Amino acid sequence: MSKRIFRAICFVSFVVLIISVALTVGVLYTHFTTELADEMKSEAQTIAYIMEQNGIDYIEDLPSTDKRITVIDKDGKVLFDNTVEDISKMENHRDREEIEEALKYGFGESSRYSTTIAEKTVYYAVKASDGTVVRLSEVQYSLFTIIMGTLQPIVVIIFIMVILAAFFASRASKSIVAPINAINLDSPNSDEIYEELAPLALKIARQNRTIREQLEEARRKQEEFAVITENMQEGLILVDNKSNIISCNSAAKRLLDADIPNKHCCVFILNRSVELSECVEKALSGEHCTQVLESNGRFCRIASNPVKNGEKIAGAVIVILDITENAKREELRREFTANVSHELKTPLTSIAGFAELMKYGMVKQEDIKDFSESIYDEAQRLITLVNDILNLSALDEDGVNREKESINLLELSKDVAKSLKIPAEKKSVTLTVTGDNVFVMGSKKILREMIYNLCDNGIKYNIDGGKVNVAVTAENGHGKLVVSDTGIGIPKEDQNRVFERFYRVDKSHSREIGGTGLGLSIVKHSAMFHNAEIYLQSEPEKGTVITVLFPL
After folding, report:
1. pLDDT, tens digit, for every residue of 525-537?
2. What are the b/e assignments for 157-183, b being 16+ CB within 10 Å?
3. What is the pLDDT of residues 211-254, one digit of tens each?
4. 3-state DSSP call for residue 266?
5. Is 176 contained in some domain?
6. Residue at a domain's end among 321, 336, 370
7. Is the pTM value of this prediction over 0.85?
8. Domain identity same for 145 and 69
């Protein structure tokens, strides 16, 4: 501490000394410069007046002076210069700054600095009544030149003053800190100290005790807070009124997919989204704010509230909730509802249209059979669609019996092939089942529906005279069900979406053959029910192969 006091006193003394010298030199230089300018103005005006009264010949007879006198006509030609013998060789002065100002305003002044000789030449010009200009100039030493000329005495004075300041600063600093250094800060009352420092020692002792108690309490609360926040599923961020992070739990970093480079960094480093920025800004302005942030397929609800200290905003609390599953469910529900409404409306509209024509007798007797057949087909399509929706809803809502039994995949596949014999014959498609007896644990009803949909799609989207083959094998600890066909195939860009509900690769062709768009979605959910994996391989105009692997 004594060193700091010593350095401070020396530094202050040195700075005051330098400033004093600089101010003195500056004031004197300014004063003499002003005096010189006033003197030159007066002389220039006097010479101009004399020249007006007596002519330029009178100026030529003036005694020699240290100032340069130049007379220039209104065109810039030099008429007289007391320092030049042959003025005819002098260049035109019309473009000189002081001459231009004198011709324009009646007087002008300027200065030009020479870096070579470190001197400044001051010019002052006055316009006479006949249009000529009288100019006075004088060399003026720069402030730097003056300082360099007096540098030696200045350095000597500064050196002596620094030595004196160091001596007195050393003694003063030691005398100041000696009684303070004698205090034992841990037990300030145990040592003999100056009477004047007794109140300070008492306050230090009380403060030490208070600090220890507060630190222990703060440590305990911090541990409790850390344990609570780190075990939260919700993200929690505390920021100060400058948007710097005070606390951030692991859930917040996980939900925002970010990390904190340091504890007191800006909260926007975690995530630069508009939603988070708006929540923070509104909270720090005293408003509650809620936003939904979507990032990398994840939906988070961000809620922020201001933290007030009286009327002043001290910071904000930001809570982040993961609502991805709810958001996706809601999106699927809306999409499913819209698709169901559309799919149900189509056959019902057809049935209502045919029935209306028959009701008002607008159908010929020989066409009634065709109309009735159309109504029957649309009704069957409607029943199929409703059954698919019910099956899919049951799989979605766990509305099926979860008790499983041992099922022979080969026998079940043969049973399904028999039920599809007539549709296959209508399209001249050969449906074969090959393989081994493979037993898996599952629901017979759901497995039958899965195999039925796979084989039904293979028949519907096949070419006339095509083939559908179902192969059942056991491989690497899995039951393998492979359904292959020689049909129209699926384009590569559609292969990732064919398992979505109501998605059709060729909508017009699907409606023509009566597809509902739910078959492969039921297959997907049936596989999920049995913890099975689905693989799709397809090439347009060559066929499709769908493989389902069941755990044995």
Report:
1. 788 888 899 899 9
2. eeeebeeebbeebbeebeeebeeeeeb
3. 888 888 888 888 887 788 788 888 888 889 888 888 888 888 88
4. strand
5. no
6. 321
7. no
8. yes
